[in-house]
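User: Sequence recovery, please. Input:
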């Protein structure tokens, strides 16, 4: 089965039951009805404030978390389907807002692990301190039996190290002997070991110095050109995301606010939340910086345990109306694939 898209996510939901009281639980809606698709060789940037659900999207997509609802397709094949949908194509929920599971479809993810990998945010905690670099990078080769001799394994590991800018003499060292940027390169080499088609990059440069960030981002681009891999690039730095992404999606409190081509979103933001994020991006040209008006949001981000009714952004939006409180805005196309969830823009 083939498809125009490599990855298709439909109405993805990830709720975590939180105990509130002696016997009761309340769903924490970390990801609440997210849909997007990524083409082969494409990069989709996912941005938003800390705690908005970006990382949970990536982990649920790879089934590191068992999704609460929705459907995930990879290369045209359904790898997760939570079942029941209503007439609008949305997941059916009970009186507590928890999705009602129909006949859940899951597959053995082991074959898909070769094609879908993840680069984690923290290069300090994502590498085993008791393993050498050669063993860290070679572990996926061991799991999937991708070599026939020890010599072939070592040759593959050294090739991967060269691919990410590490020297052969680094192979016998341990992770604590490296800088943050070098550790992240080790993590990237480990993800590339099984020759994946798709990689979730979970804020891979946020823990690095600015000068190292540029090197790692450029390396991601070079690897994409060489290998044709697709990325879901999760970050909170809009300049970094704009540099590497073909399209950008903006999240707030577990929901998608806006999605468009990278240049279109940066030059023509429609949603008030996106406009506020872009107004905070530092500009290198002082004349442009002085001419821009900063849009400061009032109040704090609401708790996902007590999310506002209707539009989740309405409590901080200067355009909010009664309709925003009464109804959740649909995610609609405003032309050329520019998707926005807003009643008033």
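Assistant: Recovered sequence (345 residues):
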């Amino acid at each position: 089965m083939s498809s125009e898209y490599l990855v298709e996510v439909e109405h993805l939901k990830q709720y975590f039951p939180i105990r509130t009281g002696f016997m009761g639980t309340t769903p924490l809606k970390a990801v609440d009805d997210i849909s997007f698709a990524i083409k082969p060789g494409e990069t989709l940037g996912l941005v938003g404030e800390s705690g908005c659900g970006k990382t949970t999207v990536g982990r649920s997509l790879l089934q590191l978390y068992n999704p609460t609802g929705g459907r995930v397709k990879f290369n045209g094949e359904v790898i997760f389907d939570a079942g029941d949908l209503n007439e609008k194509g949305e997941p059916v929920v009970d009186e507590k807002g928890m999705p009602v599971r129909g006949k859940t479809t899951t597959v053995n993810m082991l074959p898909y692990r070769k094609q879908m990998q993840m680069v984690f945010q923290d290069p300090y905690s994502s590498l085993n301190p008791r393993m050498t670099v050669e063993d860290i990078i070679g572990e996926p080769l061991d799991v999937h039996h991708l070599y026939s001799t020890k010599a072939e394994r070592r040759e593959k590991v050294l090739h991967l190290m060269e691919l990410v800018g590490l020297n052969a003499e680094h192979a016998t060292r341990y992770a604590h002997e490296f800088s943050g940027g070098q550790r992240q390169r080790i993590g990237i080499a480990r993800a590339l070991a099984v020759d994946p088609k798709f990689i979730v990059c979970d804020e891979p440069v946020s823990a690095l110095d600015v000068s190292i960030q540029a090197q790692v981002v450029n390396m991601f681009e070079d690897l994409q050109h060489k290998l044709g891999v697709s990325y879901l690039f999760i970050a909170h730095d809009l300049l970094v995301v704009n540099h590497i992404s073909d399209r950008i999606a903006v999240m707030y409190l577990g929901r998608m606010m806006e999605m468009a081509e990278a240049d279109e979103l940066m030059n023509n933001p429609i949603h008030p939340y996106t406009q506020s994020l872009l107004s905070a991006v530092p500009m290198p040209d002082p004349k442009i910086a002085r001419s821009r008006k900063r849009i400061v949001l009032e109040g704090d981000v609401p708790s996902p345990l007590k999310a506002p009714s209707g539009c989740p952004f309405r409590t901080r939006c200067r355009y909010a109306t009664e309709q925003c409180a009464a109804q959740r805005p649909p995610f609609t196309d405003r032309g050329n694939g520019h998707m926005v969830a807003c009643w008033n823009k």
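The longest strand covers residues 25-38.
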